[in-house]
């Protein structure tokens, strides 16, 4: 759809093309501007004004594009406010003020990459479950992805019903399309062995070494690590308070995704060692714990860590490539393999209950030992055996 999905692109050395839907027809019009960065931004603003006029039913094609061949075709026609494309674009803009940056980025990807290309030319009143089903049945994706797409559309339609009064009912309410044999997401849990951890830490030095060692022994998400401040460290209680995260989509720290994500994580000895070693770099400033050594500023998210430090370390250490997020899975597998209680591990990792731990990390939970059940047998079994021989009467 042009520049970054915004419906604007350079058409020639002296013109910019904008794309928009009008009365169910995809229209392309050229603006006589050289496609510089500033002019492309002006074209985006012009397209936004066109889309607003269409959505409010006051768009005049001939007045806006007097030299266009489409002007005669659409003479005396007004835009329909119920077209799905302009409605979704306006809804998405409203969501930007309500959602976390990372969640909004996911919504935007689904709206611009799926929903508008599929349904943009339809009116809201024309859309039905069959339209969604016919698109999803062709999509090679797992049920989680299919569910996410439907969830975004369902949310937009619900606002069209409850807030904007454009629909009498939500056609996706109470209905979800699923595939019986949908491809499952491959198991991404691939922790590092003790030897691999040593190899990685062996090629890292300074702040980078401290960051990755701390990650291995706390299980914090990468987004939580980069948001960490020294004020979050309680050396007396021996815990780190996790309450914020910084993603590649956010300009500043955001609260954790769930209430369970806000937690106190016990500082095990290796994690404390990493913090003690880190003090010489950032302790006196009293702000972020970990910095990008190249900029001496807080890491800007997980992508800079992966691209500027992690990939180099993995390659130099000769370790099979995995993402930095695997440090979190490594922590979980170590704790469970050492027979730490699953509920405690769940709390440390920010899960609401232990069922997630059992489902995702069950293979690292050792089988019960040979004496398992013997205590219950000794306490209750003997009593029941004695009661079997008691006669209660003729």
UniProtKB/TrEMBL annotation:
Biological classification of the source: Bacteria, Pseudomonadati, Pseudomonadota, Betaproteobacteria, Burkholderiales
Top-level taxon: Bacteria
Native organism: Massilia agilis
Entries under Gene3D superfamilies matching the protein: 1.10.150.130, Intergrase catalytic core (1.10.443.10)
Domain spans labelled Tyr recombinase: 187-376
Keyword annotations from UniProtKB, A to Z: DNA integration, DNA recombination, DNA-binding
InterPro entries: DNA_brk_join_enz (IPR011010), Integrase-like_cat_sf (IPR013762), Integrase_catalytic (IPR002104), Integrase_recombinase_N (IPR010998), Integrase_SAM-like_N (IPR004107), Min27-like_integrase_DNA_bind (IPR022000), Tyrosine_recombinase_XerCD (IPR050090)
Record-given protein name: Site-specific integrase
């Amino acid at each position: 759809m042009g520049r970054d999905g915004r419906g604007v692109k350079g058409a020639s050395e002296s013109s910019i093309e904008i794309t928009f839907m009008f009365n169910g027809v995809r229209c392309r019009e050229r603006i006589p501007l050289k496609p510089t960065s500033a002019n492309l931004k002006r074209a985006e603003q012009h397209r936004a004004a066109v889309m607003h006029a269409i959505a409010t039913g006051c768009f005049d094609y001939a007045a806006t594009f007097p030299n266009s061949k489409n002007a005669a075709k659409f003479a005396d026609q007004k835009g329909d406010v119920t077209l799905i494309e302009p409605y979704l674009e306006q809804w998405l803009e409203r969501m930007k003020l309500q959602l976390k940056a990372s969640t909004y980025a996911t919504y935007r990807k689904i709206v611009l990459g799926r929903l508008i290309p599929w349904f943009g030319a339809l009116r809201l009143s024309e859309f039905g479950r069959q339209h969604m089903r016919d698109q999803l049945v062709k999509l090679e994706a797992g049920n989680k992805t299919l569910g996410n797409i439907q969830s975004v559309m369902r949310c937009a339609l619900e606002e069209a019903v409850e807030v904007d009064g454009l629909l009498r009912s939500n056609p996706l309410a109470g209905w979800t399309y699923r595939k019986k044999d949908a491809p499952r997401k491959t198991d991404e849990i691939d922790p590092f062995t003790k030897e691999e951890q040593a190899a990685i830490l062996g090629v890292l030095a300074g702040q980078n070494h401290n960051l990755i060692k701390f990650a291995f022994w706390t299980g914090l998400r990468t987004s939580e690590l980069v948001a960490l401040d020294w004020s979050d460290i309680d050396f007396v209680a021996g815990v780190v308070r996790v309450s914020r995260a910084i993603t590649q989509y956010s300009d500043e720290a955001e609260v954790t995704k769930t209430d369970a994500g806000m937690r106190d994580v016990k500082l095990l000895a290796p994690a404390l060692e990493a913090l003690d070693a880190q003090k010489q770099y950032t302790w006196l400033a009293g702000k972020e714990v970990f910095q990008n050594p190249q900029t001496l500023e807080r890491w800007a998210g997980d992508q800079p860590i992966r691209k500027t430090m992690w990939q180099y370390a993995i390659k130099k250490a000769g370790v099979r490539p995995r993402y930095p997020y695997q440090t979190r899975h490594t922590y979980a597998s170590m704790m469970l393999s050492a027979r730490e209680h699953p509920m405690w591990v769940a709390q440390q990792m920010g899960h609401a209950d232990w069922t997630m731990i059992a489902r995702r990390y069950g293979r690292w939970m050792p089988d019960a030992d040979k004496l398992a059940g013997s205590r219950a047998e000794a306490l209750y079994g003997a009593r029941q055996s004695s009661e079997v021989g008691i006669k209660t009467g003729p």
